């Protein structure tokens, strides 16, 4: 194994600019890593080795002329197969798109390429980004690099697995229910979900090409990396207004406050009362609190007043029902897949837990949506955003779990997940800790904090104030320096 594949993006960029290593050498090291391990992980579904080698050669030639393309000059990246890439197949794991070749990059993908990145290929995912495991009808399922019998998460499981295994320094994902945060947690890497509408969604699926733009709320573009500094770099490059999506406001990036760990006021929740986490997750959260307090941090147990998780998840589910309704064709295949999801969510798992955000509660509204109902849901969402904004104003960040469990063994789509002897509905086990922040639009970063007794990663979610991603990442860096939780999987 070449040590190059586990250098950070910033380190690789510095080494290439300093002529310590060539872009060609860096790309070849990553292609060799992919060749050795991808057949087991299935993290990359479309490899573009020929064009990556050509781009790396051009990067070296440009550098010899004194030209620097940008902050990622010559750095290899991958991109989730939900972002359109010029001339490179983009499928979203969806059979009707198996031969789809876009003519234009998604805005976020294009901005990374414009910064000098070398695109190695596209990463595997859940079909149309609609599952917490990364399985689809086109490619083999994604396996977790820490244990191939376990899921890498979803829907961006290929992204997280690729970064964890040294296939790429950075990857782009998207997140409407935890699709960046849950795989980052499962695979032991860093992941960022920015503020709602901070990054343009132009050129992304699951809105199948030709369908109306429906996902105008709660969906975000996020990043995966092996360091928080890389997350900040990636975010800084792709954030900002876009003529292709005028709903992205021209909000400038914030300036961090510079507070030390000891100056921060940190809120902490080891679990939601309605959705207990696994014993090992709870223990890891408690250990984090102890370590940070020993380092001088001020931490207080907290949840917002009137934190009614049932109401939150039911509103979230209602919003999803509306914004997804016209994003994809109503063909027999899609309808059957959706009904299977709803049936399993409604019938599998603990009965009390099933009532939290159950799609079946809104089946009539899903089948016969109304403009009035949509506006009512939007109004309720505005009220929730205002309430969380007000509550979080008293804190610098809020620490909480990412999911109720670490990675679990592969299982049928949307089937119940066992957590310490209790069967949790699939969406609750994986989304109960992430969906509230898609609903509110607040940014959240995931950092690795521990490992289970059988060697699987455990991550923690750090939630910040809207439009304050740079501050959030700076605080996460203060916390991460104490915990030092990142390591790459063995045998890679």
SSE topology:
Blueprint: H1 9-17, H2 23-41, E1 44-47, H3 49-64, E2 76-80, H4 107-114, E3 118-123, E4 143-144, E5 147-151, H5 157-164, E6 170-175, H6 181-187, E7 190-193, E8 220-225, H7 228-238, E9 265-268, H8 279-294, E10 298-301, H9 309-323, H10 332-347, H11 351-354, H12 363-367, H13 371-392, E11 397-401, E12 417-419, E13 422-424, H14 426-431, H15 435-440, E14 444-451, E15 457-463, H16 469-483
Helix pairs in contact: 2-3, 5-6, 7-16, 9-13
Pfam families: Amidase (PF01425)
Family: Belongs to the amidase family.
Domain Amidase: 25-473
Low-pLDDT windows of residues: none
- CATH class of the largest domain, please? Alpha Beta
CATH superfamily of the largest domain: Amidase signature (AS) domain
For the record, give the distance between the C-alpha atoms at the N and C termini, rounded to a whole number.
7 Å
Strand order of the largest sheet: 1-3-2-6-8-7-14-15-11-9-10
Any idea how many domains? 2
What is the residue-mean pLDDT, rounded to a whole number?
Answer: 94
Profile the largest sheet: 11 strands, mixed
Number of helices: 16
Percentage of β-strand residues? 5-15%
| CATH topology assignment of the largest domain | Amidase signature (AS) enzymes
Number of strands: 15
Radius of gyration: 21 Å
Helix content: 25-40%
Structural class by SSE content: alpha/beta
* Architecture (CATH level 2) name of the largest domain: Alpha-Beta Complex
Overall 3D form: globular
């Amino acid at each position: 194994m070449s040590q190059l594949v586990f250098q950070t993006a910033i380190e690789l960029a510095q080494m290439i600019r300093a002529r310590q290593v060539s872009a060609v050498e860096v790309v070849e090291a990553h292609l060799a890593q992919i060749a050795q391990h991808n057949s087991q992980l299935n993290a990359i579904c479309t490899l573009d080795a020929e064009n990556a080698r050509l781009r790396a050669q051009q990067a070296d030639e440009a550098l010899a002329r004194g030209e620097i393309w940008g902050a990622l000059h010559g750095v290899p990246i991958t991109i989730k197969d939900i972002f359109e890439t010029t001339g490179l197949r983009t499928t979203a794991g969806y059979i009707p798109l198996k031969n789809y070749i876009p003519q234009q990059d998604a805005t976020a993908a294009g901005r990374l390429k414009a910064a000098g990145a070398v695109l190695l290929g596209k990463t595997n995912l859940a079909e149309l980004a609609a599952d917490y495991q990364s399985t689809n009808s086109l490619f083999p399922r994604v396996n977790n690099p820490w244990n191939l019998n376990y899921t890498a998460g979803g829907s961006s499981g290929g992204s997280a697995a690729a970064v964890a295994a040294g296939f790429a320094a950075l990857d782009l994902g998207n997140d409407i229910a935890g699709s960046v945060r849950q795989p980052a947690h499962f695979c032991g890497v860093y992941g960022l979900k920015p503020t709602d509408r901070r990054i343009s969604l132009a050129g992304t699926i699951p809105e199948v090409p030709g369908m109306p733009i429906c996902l105008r709320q709660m969906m975000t573009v996020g990043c995966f990396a092996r360091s928080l500094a890389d997350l900040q770099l990636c975010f800084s490059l792709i954030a900002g207004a876009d003529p292709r999506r005028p709903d992205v406001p021209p909000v400038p990036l914030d300036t961090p406050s510079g507070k030390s760990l000891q100056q921060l006021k940190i809120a902490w929740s080891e679990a939601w009362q309605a959705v207990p986490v696994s014993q090992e997750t709870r223990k890891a959260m408690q250990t984090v609190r102890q370590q940070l307090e020993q380092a001088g941090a001020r931490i207080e147990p907290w949840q917002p007043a009137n934190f009614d998780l049932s109401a939150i998840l039911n509103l979230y589910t209602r919003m999803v029902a509306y914004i997804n309704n016209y994003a994809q064709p109503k063909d027999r295949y899609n309808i059957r897949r959706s009904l299977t999801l709803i049936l399993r969510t409604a019938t599998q798992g603990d009965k009390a837990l099933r009532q939290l955000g159950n799609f079946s509660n809104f089946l009539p509204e899903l089948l016969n949506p109304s403009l009035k109902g949509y506006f009512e849901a939007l109004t309720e969402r505005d009220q929730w955003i205002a309430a969380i904004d007000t509550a979080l104003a008293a804190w610098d960040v809020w620490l909480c779990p990412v999911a109720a469990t670490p990675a679990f063994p592969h299982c049928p789509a949307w089937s119940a997940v066992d957590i310490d002897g209790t069967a949790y509905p699939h969406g609750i086990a994986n989304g109960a800790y992430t969906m509230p922040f898609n609903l509110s639009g607040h940014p959240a970063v995931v950092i690795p904090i521990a490992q289970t007794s059988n060697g699987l990663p455990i991550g923690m979610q750090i939630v910040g104030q809207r439009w304050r991603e740079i501050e959030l990442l700076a605080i996460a860096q203060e916390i991460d320096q104490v915990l030092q939780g990142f390591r790459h999987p063995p045998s890679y």
